[in-house]
Design brief:
By secondary structure, this protein is an all-alpha fold. The chain folds into two domains: about 140 residues, Cytochrome c-like domain (Cytochrome Bc1 Complex, Chain D, domain 2, Orthogonal Bundle); about 110 residues, Orthogonal Bundle (Cytochrome Bc1 Complex, Chain D, domain 2), CATH 1.10.760. The chain is about 50% helix and about 5% strand. It is built from 13 helices and four strands. Strands 1-2 form a two-stranded parallel sheet. A two-stranded parallel sheet has the order 3-4. Helix 2 packs across helix 6, helix 5 packs across helix 6 and helix 8 packs across helix 12. The longest helix has 25 residues. The two termini are about 15 Å apart. Bound molecules: heme C (2 copies). One heme C binds next to helix 1, helix 3, helix 4 and helix 5.
């Protein structure tokens, strides 16, 4: 799935909110924290730690994220887009993302110390300076260090955010759902999704599901990714409770609200069929 820096993304979204919360909390404690608050430009990891992280990365992460972190079947972890997305979020969010959800095949298998080592290596590859001390593996300590854009990197290449092969077939512009299906999806949406994503999908406590940001984020990914996201992780309050058909119905409604044309046939709930339809801006 592609990522785009202004985008409020599945994982990134939580990151930016957490970042915002830190700043809010900061109205009270920022002055206290001020003295210690650091960014990734402040030599917050050691070269030795990054080397340990590199070994772990090569073994457990490179085959999805690319040998040089430029991406592969998974998004890149280096470059302008990655940094733009994580910019100003606390490093604790990145650690949590890594330790809590990676490696995608075996989440939960890394210790915090290993997560910190890999994070150190990510900082190194992103050209942040190394220092004397290891990056702490304590989330509370990492909360006080925010990721920043590197001070001296000019024109960092934008990493392609494609995580799945771009489907060759249709796009959502090709009338891939029916009105009746969208209406069924609307009922489900209003009942199960609207209170977090907004009545009109413009967002609320959760990111919006309509508009340029949303489409920019999902642009060129197969529709199966969006349906999977919905069926496997939503509603956030009860993931796994939707059937594949309900996921397809809600997706039809998402397409309708995003002003894609309806056609005669329903959007299929079949994963292979959904893979052949690309989301387009
Ligand atoms: C309790 C609040 C809540 C409910 C209810 C909920 N969501 Fe979400 N949803 C979230 C949050 C928070 C995120 C962002 C984090 C994530 O991606 O997991 C999200 C992310 C998403 C995304 C990814 C958005 C993006 O582009 O990054 C989709 C699609 C989505 N939800 C669809 C749904 C659908 C469809 C329903 C109803 C079946 C639903 N959600 C119900 C909270 C909720
Ligand atoms: C089997 C493939 C796979 C492996 C192995 C894997 N990842 Fe991922 N990773 C993904 C995919 C797919 C995503 C995008 C979806 C998501 O954010 O969960 C991702 C997302 C991420 C992100 C968030 C990127 C961003 O900018 O939003 C980080 C950080 C990350 N992985 C780190 C790691 C690390 C560190 C390892 C090794 C310990 C690892 N991953 C191993 C597939 C993988």
């Amino acid at each position: 799935m592609p990522f785009c820096q202004s985008r409020v993304a599945p994982t990134r979204w939580t990151a930016s909110v957490a970042g915002a919360l830190v700043i809010f909390a900061g109205t009270m404690s920022w002055s206290l924290l001020g003295a210690q608050a650091k960014t990734s430009n402040d030599a917050v990891y050691s070269a030795a730690q990054a080397t340990r992280g590199q070994a772990l990365y090569n073994e457990q992460c490179a085959f999805c994220h690319g040998d040089d972190m430029s991406g592969g079947s998974a998004p890149g972890l280096a470059g302008g887009e990655f940094l733009g997305f994580w910019n100003k979020t606390p490093l604790s969010d990145l650690l949590e993302k890594i330790v809590g959800t990676m490696p995608a095949g075996a989440p939960g298998s890394l210790t915090n110390a290993q997560g910190a080592e890999i994070t150190a290596y990510i900082l190194q590859v992103n050209k942040f300076p190394a220092g004397q001390m290891d990056l702490p593996d304590d989330p509370a300590a990492l909360k006080a260090i925010t990721l920043a854009e590197p001070t001296k990197v000019a024109a960092t290449p934008v990493t392609p955010r494609q995580t799945a092969a771009a489907p060759a077939g249709k796009t959502v512009k090709d009338s891939v759902y029916s009105e009746a299906q969208a209406t069924r999806g609307q009922a489900l949406y209003n009942e199960q999704c609207a209170f977090c994503h907004g009545d009109d999908m413009s967002g609320g406590s959760a990111p919006g599901l309509a508009g340029a940001d949303f489409l920019g984020f999902w642009d060129k990914t197969p529709l199966s990714d969006l349906v999977d996201k919905i069926v496997q992780t939503m509603p956030a309050s009860a993931p796994g409770s939707l059937t594949a058909e309900q996921g397809a119905d809600i997706t039809a409604y998402v397409l309708q609200v995003n002003k894609f044309p309806a056609g005669q046939a329903d959007l299929s709930a079949d994963a292979a069929a959904l893979k052949a339809i690309a989301i387009a801006k």
